[in-house]
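dumping the sequnces here before i forget
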Amino acid sequence: MSNPKDSHPLQLSARSIEDSEQRAKIFSALSDPTRLRIVELLAEGEEVSGSEIANHLDISLALFCHHSRTLAEAGLIQQRREGQTKYNSLNRTLLKACLESFPSLI
Amino acid sequence: MSNPKDSHPLQLSARSIEDSEQRAKIFSALSDPTRLRIVELLAEGEEVSGSEIANHLDISLALFCHHSRTLAEAGLIQQRREGQTKYNSLNRTLLKACLESFPSLI
DNA sequence: CAAGTAGTCAAGCAACTATTTAACTACAAT
DNA sequence: ATTGTAGTTAAATAGTTGCTTGACTACTTG
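..and the predicted 3d for all of it:
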């Protein structure tokens, strides 16, 4: 118990990023073209609803839902419910930390 | 024919990095803890032989060989043979390009 | 209430992946 | 030539993944 790996993705600290398994999980979330396009869409800055994303990327809502779970479990997206709409936004802090986690890379 | 996706990983240009599929493939190569540790080891700078890597990470040479194929196919490592020894080094240019490929991420 | 929209869940499938083991090639040293 | 080291390959297995489909909940609007 109190295993760091059990911590919720939203509580990821800069410390967790040093763990190969956690970083691999984030890269794994980025390792599918569809998910990468979702992240790129969200990287443009705005909050976007699930159906807007599905529409924009020409995928089913069920497929977006499926991929959004992977992204959320990696901690890469945050979700905010408003009525029947669920807005998705990028966890820029975590993504930046992960992309900058190769210390010896100049 | 002359499909950009058919190009050899070693010939990856900065242009290919704009393609979601190619970027996803690179992230996919980074999505396994063992491969991530290989990349981190190589990121320290030196050329390292396969058996040294296998020894250092406490994995079998066969398993390293398996993973090194994935990394080489993604273009992330270069290999140079010298006698019976094969030295591996990191393609820093490609890794950097990939990690910096989120233009809207400040 | 009924119909439409937004989102979720679970089953099923084909395709892929990580790992182990064992058999193999190639080079080096004695 | 034999032994040892470095590396590759293929088969087998267990686990995972991406996607589709259909049924489901929840909220909204006529």
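The two ends of chain B are 38 Å apart (CA to CA).
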